[in-house]
Every structure is written in C-alpha cells, then in structure tokens.
Amino acid sequence: MVGAIQKLRQENPDKTIGVLSRNWRSTKRLYYKLQANGISHDFIEKDKGNAHIPGVKLTSFHSAKGHEFDYVIIMDLLDDINDKDLKDDEFMEVERRLLYVSITRAKTHLQIFYYDEHSVIFNEIDSQYYNKHVKK
C-alpha cells in the first residue's frame, strides 16, 4: 500500500489522497510505515485537518463523512467482526453504509486493499464495477 501511495504522490503531487480505514488501529499502523518512508501526511478527524490541501490524508470511515478526495485508498477491508455481528441485520446495515460513504469519497479513483479474506460486504459489490488485482 505504501508503494501505491508513493506512486500516486509522484504522479499527482497536486491531488488529495484519502487513506480510509474502518478503525484507527489500522491507520496508526500505516502512520508508522509512512513515517519510515518519509511520506508526509495529515490526520483528518472530527474538526481537525484539511482535506482540500494536496497530500496524503489519514482518516477513518466515520471521520471521512463530508469530505472528498481525488484518490481514495480503503485499507484493511476485513471482517473484524464476529459471527454474532454477521447475523445482526442492523449491525451489517451500518457496516454497509460506512463502506458506501467511504467508497463515495473518491472523486477520481478508488483502491481497496485487504489481505487474506476480505469483508463479506465486499461480496455484495457487483464485480462489473471493479477490476481485481491480486498481489502475492
């Protein structure tokens, strides 16, 4: 994912890149990788940060509401939920809405990253709307 961010920054230095995750734990892990690679970034959370200034913006699905980015990278789209939650219709509906909000933050391009097994919600997206690339 760091390589994808570097490539986008090199090719489009005047664009915004929103890196969104379901939880802040994933975001903080990426923060350290960006630091190690010398990639500057800002956090967008609550009323902090500016999503309109070019660069890499780290945020959660919740904090991305109301913002748009030229490019969006959704990281760790995994089932970080248990079997009980999968059977709870209300819980799953909230998860669907959060993913929808996150996907629609992209003005130009969207990339979704996951490892091992992706979220069951991803299976609900019609495959005609995306290209799948597997990196092993």
What do you see in this structure?
This protein is of the alpha/beta class and 136 residues long. It has one domain: P-loop containing nucleotide triphosphate hydrolases (Rossmann fold), CATH 3.40.50. Helix content is 31%, strand content 21%. The chain contains four helices and five strands. Strands 2-3-1-4-5 form a five-stranded parallel β-sheet, covered by helices on one side. The longest helix has 15 residues, at 89-103. The radius of gyration is 15 Å and the shape is globular. The two termini are 13 Å apart.
Gyration radius, rounded: 15 Å
Ends apart, CA distance between termini: 13 Å
CATH structural class:
Alpha Beta
Mean pLDDT reading: 85
Number of strands: 5
Main sheet: strand order: 2-3-1-4-5
Can you tell me the residue ranges where pLDDT is under 50 for at least 5 consecutive residues?
none
Helix content: 25-40%
> What's the number of domains?
1
* Structural class based on helices, strands and sheet pairing: alpha/beta
